[in-house]
């Protein structure tokens, strides 16, 4: 279940969350209907209205969650066909050797502050083979950031291949 809601793309994750909200709203509306009209529909109509409401919203919610999954699968297919993304994934796979090394707290704070100034949330920060370069997951994409200068700098593709190529 947690893999279904792993955040790979922002739009896919938002659609999945919206699907869950629709399902929850349907359950809440179903309970409101059964409480409001339970006495007047003593012949079973209240239960039928309750189940009809829950099933209708559940089907809509599952469809919305499915659309979110389709978007994420299409993004995954696109990433497999893109040679730049494939090269970054290979470099990232090679950098997992260093993944057991913790990121220093000062470095983590500096990177989070850098992205906070841009109104972006850094999902995860991990070290790389180079001590000044860190791998940052941001909004479903991977960025390499260098902390060797006065301010953090996001590396271009050419610089990433120079460091790790």
Structure, explained:
There is one protein chain. The protein has a 4-stranded antiparallel β-sheet, with helices on both faces. It is elongated. The mean pLDDT is 80. Helix 1 (10-37) packs antiparallel against helix 2 (45-81). It is built from 5 helices and 4 strands. It folds into 2 domains: 10-81; 85-164, no CATH class. It is of the alpha+beta class.
The gist of it:
The protein has five helices and four strands. It has helices spanning 10-37, 45-81, 83-95, 105-116, 157-164; strands at 122-127, 133-138, 141-146, 153-154.
Give the key terms.
4-stranded antiparallel sheet; 165 residues; alpha+beta
Give the helices and strands, then pairings.
Elements: H1 10-37, H2 45-81, H3 83-95, H4 105-116, E1 122-127, E2 133-138, E3 141-146, E4 153-154, H5 157-164
Antiparallel strand pairs: 1-2, 2-3, 3-4
Residue share in β-strands: 5-15%
| Structural class category | alpha+beta
Percent helix, as a range, is 55-70%
Number of DSSP strand runs = 4
Main sheet makeup: 4 strands, antiparallel
CA gyration radius, whole angstroms: 23 Å
Overall 3D form: elongated
Q: Report strand order across the widest sheet.
A: 1-2-3-4
**Regions with pLDDT < 50 over 5+ consecutive residues?**
none
Mean of pLDDT: 80
Please, how many helices? 5
Order of helices and strands: HHHHEEEEH
Count of all domains? 2
The span between the termini is: 36 Å
């Amino acid at each position: 279940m947690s893999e279904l809601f792993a955040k790979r793309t922002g739009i896919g994750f938002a659609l999945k969350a919206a699907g869950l909200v629709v399902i929850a709203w349907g359950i809440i509306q179903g309970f409101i209907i059964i409480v409001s009209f339970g006495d007047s529909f003593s012949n079973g109509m209240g239960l039928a209205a309750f189940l009809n409401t829950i099933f209708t919203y559940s089907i809509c919610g599952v469809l919305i969650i499915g659309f979110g999954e389709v978007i994420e699968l299409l993004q995954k297919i696109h990433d497999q066909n893109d040679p730049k993304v494939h090269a970054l994934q290979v470099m990232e796979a090679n950098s997992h050797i260093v993944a057991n090394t913790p990121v220093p707290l000062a470095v983590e704070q500096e990177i989070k502050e850098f992205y906070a100034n841009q109104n972006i949330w850094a999902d995860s920060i991990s070290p790389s083979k180079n001590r000044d370069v860190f791998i940052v997951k941001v909004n479903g994409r991977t960025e390499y950031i260098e902390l060797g200068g006065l301010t953090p700098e996001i590396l271009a593709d050419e610089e990433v291949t120079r460091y790790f190529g």
